[in-house]
Amino acid sequence: MSRPILVTLRALLVVLFVGFAVAALYAPSFVLSVFGKPVGLALAVVLFAGALCVELVLVSVWMLVTMAHDDSIFDDRSPADRWVNIAIGALTAGAAVSLIGLVYFVAAQVANPSSATVAVLVIAAAASGASAALALLVAVMRRLLHSAMQLRSELAEVI
Amino acid sequence: MPIEINLDVELAKKKMSVTDLAGAIGLAVANVSILKNGRAKAIRFSTLDAICEALGCQPGDILRYVPD
After folding, report:
1. Neighbour-count burial of A32, counting CB atoms closer than 10 A to its CB (0-12 exposed, 13-18 middle, 19+ buried)
2. Which residues of chain A make contact with B48, given a CB cutoff of 8 A?
3. I need a labelling partner for B65 at 20 to 30 A (CA). Which of A16, A105, A132, A151 fits?
4. Closest chain B CA to residue A159
């Protein structure tokens, strides 16, 4: 991996990490003041949990990028597998949280229709779908990682 | 493994040690020892090439098929 790509990627990860940390801190009180008690509270919880999941994924990506740069990602004993599993877990949790939020917002919309809740509903659906799709994609890439690890260790035995 | 590597005879013919052979073919002594002790799982053609050149022999002289 070339130096400029690594530096750019790490800078981007730091910016995203700080951005989501700030969002996790300030967004809940903001949506609470905009939407009011029942819907706003649920949205605040969903946003906070979602931001935590994103932070976990970002940390995993940082660790995997470091390993890819050191060329140690395909080593037999590399902890790459653990970080990939953490990323898959965080993405799945994010999808689940968004889905629970979606169900709650649909119920809130049926009970008390408002155009603001419709926007929240659409965003929750999109977040849930995107998160689930990413989790599946990373699960496929984990399979690729495993076969690459196996091929690397087999090739290391060739004299 | 039914395929065996027999470096001993050819090394003795040339009066070479494992270290000499390793130096001649540019391989780590540890790897040549693995070959000599029959613990190798696979060998590159380029390695076989270099061994045959250094020992002045054919691949058949160092490789043998022994049914289990």
Report:
1. middle
2. none
3. A151
4. B43
